[in-house]
Amino acid sequence: MSGKRLGIGFIGAGNISSAYLRAITGHETMAGFPVLDIRGLADMRPEASQARATEFGLSAMSIDEMLASPDIQLIVNLTIPRAHVEVGLRCLAAGKHVYSEKPLGINYAEGRQLLDAANRAGLRIGSAPDTFLGGSHQQARSVVDSGALGQLVGGTAFFQCPGHESWHPDPAFYYDIGGGPVLDMGPYYITDLVNLLGPVARVSAMSSRLRAQRPVTSEPRKGEIMDVRIDTHVTGALGFANGAIVQVGLSFDVAAHKHVPLELYGTEASLIVPDPNFFGGDVELRKRGKGEDWTPVPVTQPYADGNYRSLGVADMAHGILDNRPHRANGDLALHVLEVMEAFETASRDGRTIDIKTPVARPEPLASSLRNGVLG
Ligand SMILES: NC(=O)c1ccc[n+]([C@@H]2O[C@H](COP(=O)([O-])OP(=O)(O)OC[C@H]3O[C@@H](n4cnc5c(N)ncnc54)[C@H](O)[C@@H]3O)[C@@H](O)[C@H]2O)c1
Fold first, then answer.
1. Nearest-CA neighbor of 78 among 43, 115, 123, 33?
2. Has residue 365 been placed in a domain?
3. pLDDT tens by residue, 232-264
4. CATH number of the domain within which 123 lies
5. What is the 78 CA–ligand 1 centroid distance (Å)?
6. Is residue 69 part of a domain?
C-alpha cells in the first residue's frame, strides 16, 4: 500500500458532488479513498461551493484561486454538460489533470479538442462513468473473459423512464443540447458494454421528440416550462468489432417497462448484468439447454456494496502517482462520445455510422484491490 496522495479540487458543487465527497471521505460503510487529498471546492455560484464545503468540513475557494493553487494537481469537473469542455480546457491551461463528469463533451469535436489539448500539455483526462469498475460489473467482465458465454452474439441495453424532471431540482439541462437520454444515460451503458465486449464498430438508430416543451414536476421549480432541444426517445443497435450486436433503448418518454438494464447473449449462455448506473447488483447466468435456469454469479470483486463514485478518480490518481494508465480514461470516454453522437447522426441521416476512435478495453480491477487503495 502506497501512502502517496494527490491534491485535488472540485469545480461544480451541485447535486452529484455530495456522492463524490461522501465516497472519498468514507461516509457510511465505505473506506474512502485516501489517495485523494481534497484541497478545495469551487463553483461559479460561490454559495454552492461554500455550502458543500461547510457540509463536509472542506475549504471553498474561487475558480481562479483553484487554478492558481500549486497544491492541486487534478481537478474533478462536476459542472453541467455544456460547460465540461470549456471548464476542462481552463484546467488544462493551468497545468491540471482533469477528471470530468459525463458526457466528456456535448459532441465529438469538443471531446477531441479536450483530449488534444491534454496530449499537447502532457496531462491526463479521466471521465465518468466509473461504475463499470464496480464489483458486479467487474464480475460480469470476468464471466465474459472466461469464455463461459461461448461465441458472443449480442445483447440488449435499456434505460427508459418518464424523465428526470420528477426528481432533479434543476432539470432543464437534461432537455438542452448536451442532455437527452443518450448523452445523459448512454455513457453508463455504452461504457459498460465496451468494458464487457470491446470497441463499437458501427451504430444504427431511430429517434423521436414527442413534446417541444415539458413542465418541471419537482420542487423548487415545479410548473416551470422547459424547452426540449434534443430527441427524448432513442432506439438503435450497436455493432461491436467482435461481431456482437446489441439492441439499445434510451428514453425520457416511457411510463414503465420490464426490460432488465443489460443482457448479454452467447452461443453457450446468457448473462444478466445489473444496472450500470450503480456499482453493485445481481449478476445472473443461464446456460443453454433444457433444465438449466438462471443462477446467481457470486460477486467476489470489491466495490459492489455502495455508491463509490470517485473510484475512477482514485484509480486515475494512483495511475498518475505510479506512472501507469488509468481505467476511466479520456480515450474510452471519447470513443463512447463518438458512439453517442452516431445515434443522432444515424437517426437524422437514416444510415449506419462507422465508429473510428480506437479504444482498448480497460484492464480489469484485480480482486485484491480493496479498502480504497488501488495498485
Ligand atoms: N445528479 C445526478 O444524479 C448525476 C449523476 C451522475 C452524473 N451527473 C452529472 O454530473 C454533472 C453535474 O450534475 P448535477 O446534477 O450535479 O448538476 P447541478 O446543476 O446540480 O450542479 C452543477 C453545478 O455546476 C455549476 N456550474 C455550472 N456551470 C459552471 C461553470 N461554467 N463553471 C463553474 N461552475 C459551473 C453550477 O453552479 C452547479 O452548482 C452533469 O454532467 C451530470 O450529467 C449527475
1. 43
2. no
3. 999 999 999 999 999 999 999 999 999 999 999
4. 3.40.50.720
5. 5
6. yes
Query: Residues 279, 347: one domain?
Result: yes
Q: Is 83 in the pocket of ligand 1 (CB under 6 A)?
A: yes
Report pLDDT digits (tens) over 34-68.
999 999 999 999 999 999 999 999 999 999 999 99
123: Cα separation from own chain's centroid: 20
Residues 284, 225, single domain; the answer is yes
Residue 368 has pLDDT above 80, yes or no: no
Query: 83 C-alpha to center of ligand 1: Å?
Result: 9
Cell of 47: 454559495
Looking at the 3D structure of the chain, how many domains does it have? 2
- Does residue 44 line the site of ligand 1, with CB under 6 A? yes
* 80, 174, 310: residue to mutate for ligand 1 pocket, most atoms within 8 A of CB: 80
Mean pLDDT of 187-215: 98
One domain, residues 108 and 146: no
**How far apart are alpha carbons 341 and 180 in whole angstroms?**
12
Q: Is there a single domain that holds both residue 210 and residue 340?
A: yes
Does residue 114 sit in the same domain as residue 56? yes
Asked whether residue 363 is assigned to any structural domain, the reply reads no
| pLDDT category of residue 199 using cuts at 50, 70 and 90 | very high
75, 8 Cβ separation under 8 angstroms: yes
- Domain membership flag for residue 359: no
Q: Is 156 found in the same domain as 101?
A: no
Counting from 1 in the atom list of ligand 1, the atom nearest the Cα of 102 is: 41
